[in-house]
Design a protein that fits this description.
15 helices; 3 domains; five-stranded mixed sheet; single chain; 543 residues; binds 2-acetamido-2-deoxy-beta-D-glucopyranose
Length: 543
């Protein structure tokens, strides 16, 4: 059977406010972007690529020729900053021409230099090994005056960075908390500064570094750490070297600030089957490292709830840390491996928690199917043939327009318990023609599937072309590991020449069936899995 239908797994991870982070920054991917970027001839791209690679302690290639041949504008202090700092990061200071020194000197002599200008000028001098020509007291006074004119988060970030170099870290320590309060909140779950990733990265990295240098506890509250972490994750799909360097800077700052925000993600699969009864989670900081001081028994499945009926199936079950893999924690779900369905698991690490949707996939089997051919009016008892899985009917069944075809079967799980599946179809199709008729099968109260097909009504669904047709049963469910597609054998249909609808006993049987004629099962499956088709007594057409 080539047209196979697959169970659709709709497993989403729910976002909960101020909760465990459900993602990490992919450091390998970012490193790849930076390694490409470092080949660039654009000095700004080269600077950010080098900065990011330095952050990762990765190998820095020889870029001295590029630096030597870069054209620059001495009036553009940001460009001179990129050039000189790229030279410093790559050990290519000797490739710089002496005139680059005039750019920062001119900025510092200007009366109307802005805070960003001063930052770029001072850090240009630092990259040139010139130290600060600033008097600490005077320069801080000047910066405070400038901040009064424009107290944007970006300016605070630059002043914090300048203070690291000119020796006013104590001022940063007294102003960091109020600067952090200027962050904007999104949806009650993420924090960032006006100016986006560049400013958020600058403020977080300078504040966290300064407090570490001073030996002071970080000024970030637990809530702020998680909310800035959520913002960093929301920007993790950056593609430029600049974006990668800024993202790494912010993520590394947050990840290095203890207690660090905790991330939990599925390690690979989000389901169990009867063969594999556990799900593995990675419990890490923002950049994928183990959480310091997290005791293994602090990672707990607080609850497990079946989505279909809210029944609680587990509570307060600790995960086990995998030996030799400190970031891998295993949730053993063998207790519910026979109860297929979708579940919500609430995991906690320390005082934070998050919900994860998982599936317990069952196996389905049908041991035999009874196929009957009888009169539509029920005057004679039908002829019943039983076929056992996975065999085919030994002979071709014949049915004409005054007869009906019946099928009767029970779907069972691995433990032989009758189950109801989301998708149960009977397919009738000619061997070598593209059209087909697909009928929905529905179970009775006891879980037995009984199907009655009026051959006369079938005629319209099969373009009135009689002859040999293949009869199959198709079963699937989003909580079932493998769908079942069983071709029962051949059915030779004999439609009357007169196709007038009124000629057949339609009122008696047609309400039970809906043709999905001409539709590929591959399309029908997902539609059903999304719950769009009523599974009640009255079948509805999908279209
Ligand atoms: C899960 O628990 C069951 C029952 O305690 C045990 O038999 C099984 O080996 C465990 N699975 C794993 C992967 O540790």
């Amino acid at each position: 059977m080539s047209r196979c239908f697959l169970p659709l797994l709709l497993l989403s991870v729910l976002a909960v406010s101020n909760a465990i982070l459900q993602g990490t920054v992919d450091v390998k991917r970012l490193q790849g972007i930076l390694e490409e970027g470092v080949k660039s001839k654009d000095i700004s791209t080269l600077y950010y690529s080098l900065k990011g690679l330095k952050q990762l302690n990765a190998k820095i290639p020889d870029v001295c020729d590029v630096i030597k041949n870069t054209k620059y504008d001495l009036k553009n202090i940001e460009q001179i900053f990129h050039l000189t700092n790229a030279a410093d990061l790559s050990g290519c200071q000797n490739s710089l021409k002496p005139d680059v020194l005039s750019a920062p000197t001119q900025v510092l002599d200007k009366k109307d230099a802005t805070i960003p200008d001063l930052y770029h000028a001072v850090y240009t001098l630092k990259a040139l090994g010139k130290g600060s020509v600033y008097d600490k007291e005077d320069s801080l006074k000047n910066l405070i005056q400038l901040l009064k004119k424009d107290d944007s988060p970006a300016n605070y970030g630059y002043v914090f960075a300048l203070c690291e170099h000119i020796g006013c870290a104590a001022w940063t320590a007294t102003h960091a908390e109020s600067a952090l309060l200027a962050a904007d909140e999104t949806d009650g779950r993420s924090l960032h500064f006006d100016g986006g990733l560049p400013v958020t990265s600058l403020v977080l990295s300078t504040v966290i570094r300064t407090f570490k240098t001073l030996g002071k506890p970080s000024p970030l509250s637990m809530e702020q750490r998680y909310k800035f972490g959520a913002y960093v994750l929301s920007r993790r799909s950056v593609t430029s070297p600049r974006g990668a360097a800024l993202l790494l800077d912010a993520a590394a700052a947050l990840a290095g600030d203890q207690p660090t925000p905790i991330s939990i993600v599925f390690k690979d699969k989000k389901f169990i089957t009867s063969d594999s009864d556990s799900i593995e989670f990675s419990v890490t900081d923002l950049i994928g490292r183990p959480i310091p001081n997290l005791k293994p028994d602090e990672v707990i499945a607080q609850s497990g709830t079946r989505l279909a009926d809210d029944v609680v199936v587990l509570s307060k079950q600790p995960l086990t840390q995998k030996s030799n893999e400190p970031t891998t924690f295993i949730l053993n779900l063998s207790k519910i491996k026979s109860q297929h369905g979708l579940y919500k698991i609430s995991l906690s690490a320390g005082t934070k928690s998050a919900n994860f949707n998982i599936a317990v996939l069952g196996e389905i089997q049908v041991s035999s199917i009874e196929v009957g051919i009888g009169d539509v009016d029920g005057t004679t008892s039908p002829k019943i043939t039983t076929v056992t899985y996975p065999n085919r009917l030994t002979e071709k069944l014949q049915a004409d327009h005054l007869q009906k075809v019946t099928l009767k079967f029970t779907v069972r799980d691995k433990w032989n318990k009758p189950v109801v599946v989301q998708q149960a179809f009977v397919r009738i199709a000619p061997a070598n023609a593209p059209h087909e008729a697909i009928y929905v099968a529905e179970p009775d109260a006891a879980g037995t599937y009984k199907v009655e097909l009026n051959v006369g009504a079938m005629s319209a669904h099969l373009r009135h072309s009689g002859g040999a047709h293949e009869l199959s049963v198709l079963l699937g469910d989003s909580a079932v590991a493998a769908p079942l597609a069983w071709t029962l054998g051949d059915l030779v249909l004999n439609f009357a020449r007169n196709h007038a609808v009124g000629a057949f006993a339609l009122p008696l049987l047609s309400p039970r069936w809906t043709s999905l004629e001409g539709q590929r099962l591959g399309r029908v499956g997902p539609v059903l899995a999304r719950g769009r088709l009523s599974m009640g007594r009255q079948h509805r057409l999908v279209y």
